[in-house]
Amino acid sequence: MEITLDHYLAVAAVLFVIGLMGVIMRRNLLIIYMSLEMMLQAANLTFVAFSRFFNYPAAASKFYDPADGQVFVFFVITVAAAEVAVGLALIVALYRLKETTQVQNLTTLKF
Amino acid sequence: MDALFFWFFSFLMTLGGLGVILSRNPVASALCFAFSLVNMAALFIMLGAYFLAAVQILVTAGGVMVLFLFIIMLLDVTVAGKAPRQKTWTGFALALGLMFIYLVALTLNATPRGLVPQNTIPLETYRSVPAASAISSGLVDDTQRIGNRLFTHFVAPFEITSLLILVAIIGVIVICKEDEPARSSRDEISREAPPIPREKETALTP
Amino acid sequence: MYLADASPIPPGISWFLLLAPLAATVAILLHLHRKPEMAMFASVGSAALCFLIALVVSFDNVPPPAAWTWIAFPGSDSAPGLNIEIGMILDPLAKGMLLIVTGVGLLVHIFSIGYMAHDPGRGRFFGGLSIFMFSMTGIVVATNLIEMFLFWEGVGFSSYLLIGFWYTRDSAAAAANKAFVCNRLADFGFMIGILTFWKMMGTLSVEPDKLAQCYYKNVLPSVHNILGNGQLPNLFAHVGSVEHMGGVIYGQPALLTFMVLGLFAGCVGKSAMFPFHVWLPDAMEGPTPVSALIHAATMVAAGVYMLCRVYPLLILSDFGMDVIAFIGCLTACGAALIAVQQNDIKRILAYSTLSQLGYMVMAVGCRGPAAAMFHLSTHAFFKALLFLAAGSVIHALHEEQDIWKMGGLFKKIPLTAWTFLIGFLALSGFPLLSGFFSKDLILAFAYTHHPFYFWVGSFTAFLTAFYMTRLFVVAFFGPPRTPAAEHPHESPAVMTAPLVILAVFSVVAGWSFGGYGIGNYYHLWAINQLNATGQLLPTGKYIALPELPGFYGWVPSMLVIAGGLTSLWLYWDRSTDPLNIRILAQKFYFDEIYDRSLVGGQQRAANLLSWLDSWILEGLIIRGAAYVTVGIGELLRLFQTGSLQAYAFILSLGGAVVIYLTLFTH
Q1: Contact C358, C477 (CB under 8 A)
Q2: Model confidence over C352-366: pLDDT tens digits?
Q3: Predicted confidence band of residue B157 (pLDDT cuts 50, 70, 90)
Q4: Do C641 and A20 touch (CB under 8 A)?
């Protein structure tokens, strides 16, 4: 069968939903963070798919190039890496404070 | 052939994703995630984004996930099964997930079907084009195209991203720094009063 | 007094009848209540000025001044216009009443100089007396019912001030409230009567010439003028009563009765008829001059005066007149019965006032306004005399008011005793004194109207003689029953002079010389008034004063003497009361009934409202609203779980909903 854009988008969506379920379901803070990362990567897949399937050289101009999707993925990967670093640092600091990584123990915002 | 590879890699990627959220051992979760990323890189290659596939494996799977593993080991996280069972959100999560899937299905239903790469240059022709005229005719490989865009139109975000990485480095160092104990390098005479002992912040202080 | 030639005195002088006491009141209010002597001077001076002007106006036939229009709305075909003015009537009725009011008022003012000499609040007292004079004079000369109502409330107010003069006493303050509330309640009926009057007659004015026109608004012009010979045609003989001259009432009879009853309601309140009489005995808490002036001679007579003022229109309702006569009769007899068993000298006199007022109202109801006004005048004299003499006795015995604690006063305070004797004989209707003439005239009218009123009136005369003799014998004769009664001191001249003057008038007021006498004066007025409405001539009734036929003429006098002798026999030389009729001593339990029903009912209504306020308004609505708000807050608090996953879930859910709404709905 012909693999169209819809297939890639569906796969990315499934990965995104799996990540979302992980965020809501898991109690370990690190696993939650990992699932969050998975959601980002699903978005990356979407960008690349669009970049490939809207590849019209005739439309290329100063403002739009079919490679722009991939450029964006480049940025996303970079920023995700930086974000993960900072986030894990925060988790480590939190662990030092609370001695736990279980999210149900971190309820100081409870009214 | 194309379809086979697609289904194979996407299946494995989904399996890896499920492994992330379903496994009890955090290390297993991290490794499953890395596996999933590798399969995603394969999908990237199928989509013609070779550079990004390599970057994905190097940076995300090789850097981010390794960092995750470091932290998992550092925090000495126990296996989740031994923790007391609390109310989990499994049902809600499942419902929400299905709701999102439904939304995506609706969207895909509403958009034009069967979009295939049209008027695109087959991948095989990239290599047969001489380098000089490649850029003007658009027949360059993806790395060059990314580079081209990155240093012309997207140079500002590029520089800012480098700044962002710098900030992230500094931030990580600052956050992870422990409180230093008072240094005893001062001589006895100039010490006016003993330092006020600072209370260690715990979860129980209001 | 019916001189035809105009007088050289300007009519504007009549305004000083109102302005002089008003000026005295304002002066006392602003400044003089701190200087009692100056206050006394101002008040007594204004009373003297009023009396002087009244004399001049009456004997010199000064015409009334022009009225000052206050509100004037023109009328239309469907609605009557509104024309309220402040003006003065000076017809014979008003002049007679004016002389009584100002004369007796002046004497009471002089008496008060002596009576209140040691009271620190006497400046305030004279201020109250002055405002009373102002309001009472206003009622007498009022040209329209609204002006009269304003002054009506004025006398009520000054009565409140003066009854509660010693306001630190709880009983005095309560009595003042009781008087004012009773009056106010009755004035509600009065106001309804005034409004009905306005609707029926199209005007608020009660000037004598206008009353005739008002009468004819509601009665077909009587046919006798057409026939010209004073005979009634057979056609109209059966319609209405004879008093309506055979004319047919075509204004709604029910509304006319309603109007009469409404106007009578004002009289019921002010003149303390049953069942609104309960305030008058309690009003004796005020100083004795107040009781003399306000609650004996003038204010309580204002009701009777008002009825006489609108008399031609009262006749329009037979049922209304019957009600008036009956209530008057009931009051006369009931009050006399109660007085038989009272022990406070002022209470006995108060109930006797009630009884005599009942006589006056009964006279109006029996178609004899002349008799009512005659009795009003003589009653003013001897009742004021009796009260002032009682005040003198109380003063002599250092504020003792129980007659069973007095005794043997006759020899010790002879002047007071003799004037008291004259007063009480006049009240009882002893032959040839003033009360005899006026009371017998009333009984004559009563006999002519219906024998029931005659017999009840005569029985009341018997009772009057009985209880007044009881009072006199117990208080003035027999051994002194307490140490205080052993050494009474006679009052100073400033207090005994008015007593003597009033005693003289009590004797001579009933006599007439060659057609000039108080009785004839009012009779002439009545004839002229009724003639204007054509009510008298065709029937010839009431043209001459009625007389009691033969034997009946002796009945009242015999009953009076019999009552006196019975009382003398029962009460001579006693130290306690041989009669002990509980129901009379408890005043027919009126106060207790009112307390249970009205006060208790109002208390229950207040409790209900209090319950409603605290449970429903405060509890349900105010606190309920507060609790609902708090409840919603508690509900919202459940969202702040502090659980990361809950937040993430809600966030994603919201995001999904927004995406759906954005993409898939219009």
Answers
A1: no
A2: 999 999 999 999 998
A3: very high
A4: no
Helix (H) or strand (E) holding C73, with range, is strand C68-73
Q: Report chain B residues whose CB lies below 8 A from the CB of C649.
A: 89, 92-93, 96
> Quick one: C231 exposed, middle or buried, by C-beta within 10 A (0-12, 13-18, 19+)?
exposed
Subunits next to C (3 or more Cβ pairs <8 Å) are A, B
C-alpha distance from C625 to closest chain A C-alpha (Å): 23
Find residue C374's DSSP bridge partners: none
Query: Which of C139, C182, C157 is CA-nearest to residue C269?
Result: C182
Of A51, A47, A25, the residue nearest A36 (C-alpha):
A25
Measured between CA atoms, the residue of chain A closest to residue C638 is: A111
Tokens coding B136? 């003007």
Give pTM, 2 decimals.
0.67
Q: What is the DSSP string of C387-426?
A: HHHHHHHHHHTTS--BGGG----TTTSHHHHHHHHHHHHH
Measured between its terminal Cα atoms, the distance across chain B in Å is 63
Tokens 């004989």 -> residue: C425
CA–CA distance, C627 with C629 (Å, rounded to integer): 5
Tokens of C19: 């302005």
* Chain B interface with C: residues with Cβ < 8 Å: 89, 92-93, 96, 99-100, 103, 106-107, 110
Residue C31, CB-side half-sphere exposure with 13 Å CA sphere: 5
pLDDT band at C295 (very low <50, low <70, confident <90, very high): confident
DSSP characters over B66-132: HHHHHHHHHHTPPPGGGSPP----HHHHHHHHHHHHHHHHHHHHHSPS-----SPPPGGGGTTS-ST
Kindly report the nearest CA distance between residue B133 and chain C, in angstroms.
Answer: 44
pLDDT over 90 percentage in chain C: 29
Average pLDDT, chain C: 83
Query: Is A102 in a helix, a strand, or coil?
Result: strand
Query: Is residue C53 within 8 Å of C13, Cβ to Cβ?
Result: yes
Dihedral sign (CA C50, C53, C57, C63): negative
Q: Between A and B, how many CB-CB pairs are < 8 A? A: 237
- What number is the ipTM of this complex? 0.91
Query: For residue C499, is pLDDT > 70?
Result: yes
H helix or E strand, kind and range, residue C609: helix C600-611
Per CB-CB distance under 8 Å, the chain B contacts of C660 are 103
At B170, list the tokens: 């500094």
As given in the structure block, the two tokens for residue B60 are 């995300």
